[in-house]
Design goal:
The structure holds two protein chains of two kinds. Chain A has 17 helices and five strands. By secondary structure, chain A is mostly helical. Chain A has a three-stranded antiparallel beta sheet with strand order 1-2-3. A two-stranded antiparallel ribbon of chain A has the order 4-5. In chain A, helix 3 packs across helix 17, helix 9 packs antiparallel against helix 10 and helix 13 packs antiparallel against helix 14. By secondary structure, chain B is of the alpha+beta class. Chain B is built from 14 helices and nine strands. In chain B, the strands form two sheets. A five-stranded antiparallel beta sheet of chain B has the order 1-9-3-7-5, with no helix packed on it. Chain B has a four-stranded antiparallel beta sheet with strand order 2-8-4-6, with no helix packed on it. The chains are: A mainly alpha, B alpha+beta. The interface between A and B is large, with 45 and 50 residues.
Chain lengths: 447, 447
């Protein structure tokens, strides 16, 4: 099968981000300061568990970032292929989690008499003859099987750790940490096995289906990429500018400082949401004028995502710029910077070699702490109608949809629940991990 | 002190001007009035005349910065083979004839334009025109412009009874095939006073006037200033209780946490705070609405009433907002309390043998409230602008819902007014913060 890889703008940015992150990590690890901080984060159990969850999300996001053009000419990602069994099992409309029958009644003619009944779902629990009776035992059986697989892999992991500790002195010293890791991976395997067995062929929609009958679980998985991109790209697109302007303002002072301060006070005075709204409204009319070749929904949605990241970045770089300026004001009075100046080192070199590396902890802290806020902000923007493209899968769009669903009677709650679970699952570990990173890098800011 | 306040206020002026310039650039340059009109009249299938009419209706036909007095007096659209228009002009002076051409090359065709005047001896046409005032243009997509003028009479007109008669001007357009995108415009430079050369511009009408709080009319013809005045009160009725209740609740819980610092209560309290912080505000609102209004039927789902009845509409949104703010509020206040508790004067008080409760609630609380309260001051003016989400979910006719409605209707006049007002209030907040610091904290010097 011949296929061509497609790199959307956001894909390129994500790859650049990964590459940059790897380079930075490699260079940072050669410094004692960063190694100590990293060791401190690694010793924090909560932080490491959070990091594990974040890694899991990242893997899902990355799978969804590798795009290629399918044989039908559509742009699809690897996650689409993996999720194909789920994507193909579409019902006609809403169905509750683990339901065997549709959520809404349909009029059917049965022997000439019109009866209103809940039709059987086409793609859930297909193997069962009498779902009313057999569904509960079937779910129990599948859950037990998933539990078995999950526990089995957990036991295997623990066994490996125990075996490793038995054989190697080095591993024995890190036994506790390794057991924690194994325990965590075990839980992940358990969840994965449960999800797989329950929704496997002839299984159930574990988080129900939405209005058009699509599986909500798959939709929530597809939204992971959007959330991650908004959380990371937004800060990282503008971080270089924030560093540059912050260092310039702090190091040179005088007129340059005044100008940069003026620019960021002015930008931060404009209400964030309204500035984003204005730019997104403008972007819409710009997108409408794009040549038809780029009107592909995936590409247009991607433009919108990148634009959203940039504009959200512009509204939020001022805080970081201010912090960096304040730090540079302090650093520039320190002996080593003064010495460099006295030796006649050029100003550009002082900034690049002596100032910027000593600011990276502030940058890292602000990026990590800002992440969760941005993921939450995406939902709010989607609700106002200025977020990512409505055609793009995102938790914000799911919440936005579920607003009308909550007004129905009986309530359609699973769309909201899915978005809630996945968002809290990302934001909570991000918050915990962010706190740990901050504690490790800047003990003065400890909460 | 007075001099300081005055100077601080003067510093705010350049920022305000900067905000206005950015907003103007965003709304009228990046998104030109033509784009706006196209967006409003339907994106495709919109004729230039419709765009002109829309712009004229919203007084966006004016030039950006400088009005030279040129004014369009006639436009002729090639919707028939032969088009003709006649105008009684303002008299002698400069005229400009613009022959527009369709954008698409396939619609380009040969056009014949003819200019006729009731007093042909006074008409001075450029050399391209022949003696009859006719000009045939080849098929092309380039627009052509021609200047001509009508001479003033050399002598005052002889009194022939009827007084002065202005010359009549007629233009004709002939095309082979009617194409509505193809048209001819006639502009006339009339007399214009010096001041209106600057006031009759988009920049003055839409930007300078915002600085003076003259917001003009919204797209549906309502006076924006009056609307703001009416909608301010519900917003305040919601925001002030939230502010006060939120402050009390946050301070109470953070004191509790600081009092039992280091115990399980404190540690789990902080964990709970992080969990509360990780949940999007949308979930609090939607969950609260479903549980308390829909299922328990304690309060109306949405709506608003003026007077005492407003309590039952405001109770739930206020409670939701307070709860959703607890996480970050308590954590923030707790840090401040802990910092205060570790100071020397607190240790001295304890060493004197004062009970812990008295130390905490008398000594520490007083000093810790200072940063907390001054932190609130910055947000005080922004209470007027209301909460977008809350007001739109609970259908409270405040400023927030006004803004969100405008965003959804793409009413640029209202959005721009809100941006201006919001940034003005933000700057007022900054000034107030600075002033309150100098008032309450004698260590901050007046410079």
């Amino acid at each position: 099968m011949a296929f061509t890889l497609v790199f959307l703008w956001s894909d390129i940015l994500v790859l650049a981000l990964l590459l940059g992150g790897a380079c930075w990590l490699w260079s940072a690890l050669r410094r004692e300061y960063w190694r100590v901080a990293l060791r401190q984060v690694a010793a924090n159990r909560v932080a490491m568990l959070s990091f594990g969850v974040l890694c899991l999300y990242t893997v899902i996001g990355l799978l969804d970032t590798i795009h290629y053009r399918s044989t039908e000419g559509r742009i699809v990602s690897v996650l689409d292929i993996l999720g194909k069994p789920l994507a193909e099992r579409t019902e006609t409309t809403y169905s509750a989690p683990f339901a065997t029958h549709s959520f809404s009644r349909v009029n059917v003619s049965r022997g000439g008499v019109q009866v209103s009944e809940y039709p059987r779902l086409e793609c859930a629990a297909t193997g069962l003859a009498d779902p009313e009776q057999e569904a509960a035992p079937d779910i129990r059986r599948r859950a037990l099987a998933g539990l078995g697989w999950g526990l089995g892999s957990a036991v295997l992991l623990f066994g490996l750790v125990a075996l490793g500790a038995h054989w190697s002195e080095r591993l024995r010293r890190r036994q506790t940490a390794l057991y924690w890791g194994a325990g965590f991976l075990g839980v992940v395997c358990l969840l994965l096995a449960e999800a797989l067995t329950l929704s496997a062929d002839g299984g159930y929609h574990i988080l129900g289906t939405d209005k058009t009958g699509q599986d909500v679980f798959l939709a929530a998985l597809k939204s992971v990429r959007t959330g991650l991109i908004i959380g990371t790209l937004t800060t990282l697109i503008v971080t270089p500018f924030a560093i540059l302007f912050g260092v310039l303002a702090g190091y040179f002072g005088g007129k340059i400082d005044d100008l940069i301060q003026y620019v960021y006070t002015t930008l931060s005075s404009i209400p964030d949401i309204l500035l984003i709204a204005a730019v997104m409204l403008i972007l819409q009319s710009w997108l409408a004028r794009l040549p038809a070749a780029e009107q592909d929904t995936v590409i247009a949605a991607d433009y919108r995502l990148v634009a959203l990241c940039i504009i959200m970045g512009i509204t939020s770089w001022t805080g970081l710029c201010r912090l960096i300026r304040a730090e540079v004001l302090k650093l520039r009075e320190l002996e080593y910077v003064q010495a460099a100046d006295a030796f006649g080192v050029s100003r550009a070199r002082v900034m690049a070699r002596h100032l910027v590396p000593n600011l990276m902890h502030i940058v890292l802290i602000s990026v990590v702490l800002r992440f969760s806020g941005l993921v939450l902000a995406e939902a709010v923007l989607a609700y106002i109608g200025i977020g990512v493209d409505p055609a793009m899968q995102s938790w914000g769009n799911m919440i936005n949809q579920s607003r009308l669903e909550l007004a129905r009677d009986p309530v359609v709650w699973w769309n909201l629940l899915a978005a809630f679970l996945f968002m809290v699952g990302l934001v909570l570990p991000a918050n915990l991990f962010g706190d740990a990173v901050r504690d490790a890098l800047d003990p003065r800011l400890r909460v | 002190m007075t001099a300081y306040i005055i100077r601080r206020c003067l510093y705010a002026i350049p920022t305000l001007v900067g905000v206005n310039v950015i907003v103007f650039a965003l709304f009228f340059f990046v998104n030109s009035p033509d784009d706006m009109a196209r967006e409003h009249c339907g994106r495709k299938r919109v004729t230039p005349d419709q765009i002109d009419a829309w712009k004229r209706q919203h007084s966006l036909h004016l030039p950006y910065f400088y009005n030279s007095g040129w004014e369009r007096i006639a436009s002729l659209t090639a919707d028939e083979q032969e088009n003709k228009t006649e105008c009684r002009t303002a008299g002698p002076g400069e005229y400009e004839l613009v022959v527009e051409a369709p954008q698409a090359a396939k619609e380009a065709q040969e056009r014949t334009v003819r200019v006729k005047c009731s007093e042909p001896q006074r008409l001075v046409l450029p050399p391209e025109f022949d003696a009859q005032g006719t000009l045939t243009l080849p098929a092309s997509t380039a627009a052509r412009r021609f200047r001509f003028r009508i001479e003033a009479l050399p002598l005052p007109p002889p009194a022939r009874g009827g007084g002065t008669e202005e010359p009549k001007l007629a233009i004709e357009l002939k095309v082979a095939e009617p194409a509505p995108a193809n048209r001819v415009l006639l502009a006339y430079q009339g007399p214009i006073s010096f001041s209106s050369r600057f006031t009759q511009t988009i920049f003055y009408q839409r930007s300078i006037r915002m600085l003076c709080f003259s917001y003009g009319k919204s797209d549906d013809g309502k006076d924006i200033a009056e609307e703001i005045y009416n909608r301010m009160w519900p917003s305040l009725a919601l925001a002030i209780p939230i502010l006060i209740l939120g402050l009390l609740v946050d301070v109470f819980f953070s004191m509790l946490s600081a009092f039992y610092r280091g115990t399980y209560l404190d540690r789990w309290g902080v964990v709970l705070c992080v969990i509360l912080m990780s949940i999007s505000g949308l979930f609090y609102i939607m969950g609260g609405q479903v549980v308390f209004s829909k299922l328990l039927c304690l309060v109306p789902i949405s709506g608003y009433d003026y007077g005492v009845d407003s309590v039952k509409f405001l109770a739930l949104p206020a409670a939701i907002m307070v709860v959703s703010g607890i996480g970050s509020g308590v954590r923030f206040n707790r840090t401040i309390f802990l910092e205060e508790i570790n100071k020397d004067y607190v240790r001295t008080a304890r060493a004197k043998g004062m009970p812990e409760r008295r130390v905490l609630f008398i000594h520490a609380l007083k000093n810790a409230m200072l940063p907390i309260l001054t932190g609130l001051v910055a947000g005080l003016p922004l209470l007027f602008t209301g909460d977008l989400l809350l007001e739109s979910f609970f259908a409270i006719p405040g400023m927030g819902s006004f803004t969100i409605d405008a965003l959804q209707r793409q009413d640029f006049a209202v959005v721009q007014a809100m941006v201006s007002l919001g940034s003005f209030l933000y700057i007022v907040g900054l000034v107030l913060t600075d002033i309150s610091y100098t008032l309450f904290d004698p260590r901050v010097r007046l410079e």
